[in-house]
Amino acid sequence: MTYSLNSRKVAKATEEWLAKRGVDKREIGELVLFLQKDYYPELTMEECLESVDRVLSKREVQNAILTGIQLDVLAEEGRLLPPLQDMIFNDEGLYGCDEVLSLSIVNVYGSIGYTNFGYIDKSKPGVLKRLNTKNGKDIHTFLDDIVGAIAAAASSRIAHRKQAEKETQEHIDEA
Ligand SMILES: [Mg+2]
Prior knowledge:
With 175 residues, the protein is mainly α.
């Protein structure tokens, strides 16, 4: 059988895997609100969730999510080959591929996502704190960075849109 890509299946699998790994989209929306509320006090949860959905609709984002979660799951089941198994299982500090993979998500709305990603990775609010709490069973070495990256990208999208709205308004005011 020849390989044919089914985009709908990939999108659906991404949503399902995020849920299966215990991440609620609303929690990602809360991260976006946390990142943007000082800049846009009027920003609503609905706008944040809409932005998260737009990020999640992108193929490169879906690919990164599926890849990262797959590695977390295999590490959890002890099915990776050494030494990678131990590195991912123990979230080894010098293993940085989790962050690098997440950059393909951060990038989708331009480089301003990097600042948000770095900030949220350091402060670990909400769901990120939970994903980072090691219980010796659930492995979220990739997922914590992925979730932070989705929030960072969704925040960048909001920043770009707000700027565009502002410029349109200025244009109207000038006319
Ligand atoms: Mg990580």
